[in-house]
Specification:
Layout (H helix, E strand, L loop, with lengths): L4 H12 L23 H23 L9 H6 L6 H19 L11 H11 L2 H13 L5 E7 L5 E7 L14 E7 L6 H4 L3 H9 L4 H12 L3 H7 L3 H18 L4 H19 L9 H22 L4 H19 L5
Antiparallel strand pairs: 1-2, 1-3
Helix pairs in contact: 2-4, 6-8, 11-12, 11-14, 12-13, 13-14
Bound molecules: fe (ii) ion.
The site of fe (ii) ion has 7 residues, from α2.
Length: about 325
């Protein structure tokens, strides 16, 4: 079967994180085909106006910055380090792209896979209880936000909700994982037709969920290396070290050594704590321990050099080496 180029690009985008410049994905169906659950004007306004402006704002905020080469996943993963404009518009682009992908008119829907069905039975007992829990999360989300069905780092299905345009990939969210299904509970998603009746909208939009597509997302998610990155990022000692690394290494890149000169002791102390801490289960392997030992040694060296009053050029080189060693262990970088 020949796959249209757009579909191929979209599929690749969802697997590896959309690349820049970002663009508005075309809807798989015409605006009127989602009715009566969602009327054509709401679909068109939501997609062609709201989503388009999130994409435009995101591209505008990134052009000419050091974030220009990052994927959408990279941008969101460290959302807490981003400006509000980037955090909100990156989240909005991802969230809406997923939402369009998992909705389909009743006549176009495909069946849930056995794999997802088994996982739902295991984690929620039944589809009815999943629906009840999900709609409760969506209806009780105060103000604007999203409800999610996610795969957690330990590969369990979970239902969560987030405010504004945040999502479970972001470091600003407590319950993290890879989203496989989402419902938009911003008023712009339903107000034209349902006004304040969010519960009616939720019941209607629930019937548009294409479980065949959600099944594809589930299979991709449980095999996605992003789950490992999310698990690493829930490692408290790693997060602590990462903070100091980010606040000392990045200034050093532009020649500012003051942060590391002031904090080299703390930098080394956090590295010791990291080496001594227990990694998450899936990361508890020899390569990780070896990587941490090398990192601690490098941090010790930097601390000694700072104490001896080493020259800027020497420290810049050593900081770059420590950063490389760190990202051999940690993977993603948020600069
Ligand atoms: Fe929306």
């Amino acid at each position: 079967m020949k796959i249209p180029l757009f579909t191929l690009l979209f599929l690749l985008g969802t697997q590896i994180g959309f690349t820049q410049p970002f663009f508005l994905p075309k809807l798989p169906y015409s605006y009127s085909e989602y009715a009566p659950q969602i009327d054509a004007l709401t679909m068109e306004t939501h997609h062609a106006k709201h989503h388009q402006s999130y994409v435009n704002n995101l591209n505008k905020a990134l052009v000419g910055t050091r974030m220009e080469s990052q994927t959408l996943i990279d941008l969101m993963f460290y959302a807490g380090f981003r400006s509000d404009v980037v955090r909100n518009n990156a989240g909005a682009h991802y969230n809406h792209s997923l939402f369009w992908e998992i909705l389909a008119p009743l006549s176009a829907q495909s069946e849930m896979s056995q794999e997802l069905s088994t996982a739902i039975t295991k984690d929620f007992i039944s589809m009815d209880s999943l629906k009840k829990t999900f709609l409760n999360a969506a209806s009780s989300r105060f103000g604007s936000g999203w409800a999610w069905l996610i795969v957690s780092p330990d590969k369990k299905l979970m239902i969560t909700s987030t405010s504004n345009q945040d999502n479970p990939i972001m470091d600003v969210v407590t319950e993290r994982g890879i989203p496989i299904m989402a419902i938009d509970v911003w008023e712009h998603a339903y107000y034209l037709n349902y006004q304040n009746r969010r519960a009616d909208y939720l019941n209607a939009v629930w019937s548009l969920i294409n479980w065949g597509k959600v099944s594809e997302k589930y299979t991709m998610a449980i095999n996605d290396s992003l789950l490992i990155e999310l698990e690493k990022d829930s490692w408290p000692a790693m997060m602590e070290f990462h903070k100091v690394m980010a606040q000392t290494f990045h200034p050093s890149e532009s020649g500012d050594l003051q942060p590391i000169r002031k904090r080299s002791g703390e930098f080394f102390a956090k590295a010791i704590l990291l080496t001594a801490s227990a990694p998450p289960k899936s990361l508890n392997n020899i390569a990780i321990h070896e990587g941490l030992t090398k990192l601690e040694k490098k941090c010790n060296e930097i601390n000694s050099l700072v104490k001896k009053g080493a020259k800027d050029a020497v420290l810049i080189k050593k900081m770059a080496e420590s950063h490389d060693l760190f990202h051999n262990v940690q993977g993603l970088c948020h600069d």
